[in-house]
Amino acid sequence: MLQKNIVHYKCNEKEENMNTTARMNHIIQPDGKTFIMAMDHAANFNTLPALTDPKKLVKEIAAAGADAFLSTVGMTEFLTDSFSGKGIIVRVDGGVSYLGDRSKAMQTTVTAEDIARMGADGVITMSFPGSKFENEVLSNLTRICMDCHRWGIPVLAEALPRGFEPFEDSRTPENLIFASRQSVELGADFVKTNYTGDQESFKALVEATYRPVVILPVEQLLREIKDSLEVGGAGVAMGRNIWGHENPVGYTAAIAKLIHEDCSVEAALKEMNTVFAV
User: Fold this and answer.
1) What's the Cα-to-Cα distance from 192 to each of 33, 50, 205, rounded to whole Å?
2) Could you report the per-residue pLDDT of 224-264, keeping only the tens digit for each?
């Protein structure tokens, strides 16, 4: 099984000026893999009623095995204890909502200094080559990387060809590979992208990107996770399919087992009925 080379060490918890590697080690585990739970949707979309009580759900999902969370500014500021010491990656682009007409690009709304003050471990921002606003989005990515690296903060790029615009080639393996590679060339420390659909093309994506790649599975979720891990994937960054599930805590446990215990999909599913203390 292929794995990305992750330099892993334990930093002094009293260290005030953590570097990028130390923060990455709070996100990616010693086995080179990570389960990042996405909880940043409410900054742009209506997530009710599923996320009516995010404080409780975040704590339960942390206990069930998530390694890190994609978070909003508000959750990072006000729900810190719920994360239970897990990694926190803050969404730094925004300024739009699902009620808008999509005539404007997302703006960078949070600085690296803000992230350091909040005690977060990293940031996430979009990387949309071929989209209507690619010039602004891709320029923002590099500026965010340069700003964050001065503070020792890693950047996760969400690499999606053409963004969410409806083009037939928006999720082809070739374009997913290009978008992922471009993201690290623009400075990203790791990449979130869609699974390419088959192991051969995803292995090519992992090898071309040369930084850890986590996937947002699209269809057969657990099968795609397993297939990606077998050819060098570093895990997942997903949320809606978990917090929208009838059993989000059990589903979290199943995914965590699949990622970190190298088990079968069938073995992972047995975790669905596990009860976790919080």
Assistant:
1) 13, 24, 12
2) 999 999 999 999 999 989 998 999 999 999 999 999 999 99
* Rounded CA separation 144/273 (Å): 41
Question: What is the pTM for the complete model shown?
Answer: 0.89
Buried b (16+ CB within 10 A) or exposed e, 222-254: bebbbbbbebbbbbbbbbebbbeeeebbbbbbb
Q: Please provide the distance, in angstroms rounded to a whole number, between the alpha carbons at the two ends of the chain.
A: 34
Whole-Å CA distances, 254 to 29, 36, 47, 257: 17, 14, 23, 5
Q: Give the span between the Cα atoms of 250 and 275, in whole angstroms.
A: 8
Q: Do the beta carbons of residue 168 and residue 136 sit within 8 Å?
A: no
Which pLDDT band holds residue 18 (cuts at 50, 70, 90)? low
86 and 58 Cβ atoms separated by less than 8 Å: no
Q: Residue 77: is it exposed, middle or buried by C-beta count within 10 angstroms (0-12/13-18/19+)?
A: middle
- Non-local (6+) Cβ contacts of 12 within 8 A are none
Per the structure block, which two tokens stand in for 138?
Answer: 């891709």
Cross-strand bridge partners of residue 88: 69
pLDDT band at 14; cut points 50, 70, 90? very low
Q: List, for residues 106-124, the tens digit of each pLDDT value.
A: 888 999 999 999 999 999 9
Q: Please give the pLDDT value at position 273.
A: 73
Each residue's pLDDT tens digit, 96-105: 877 887 778 8
The amino acid that residue 53 corresponds to is: D
Show the beta-strand stretches assigned E in the chain: 34-38, 68-71, 87-91, 93-94, 107-108, 122-127, 155-159, 190-194, 213-216, 235-238
* Contacts for 231 with CB less than 8 Å, ≥ 6 apart: 1, 2, 199, 202, 203, 206
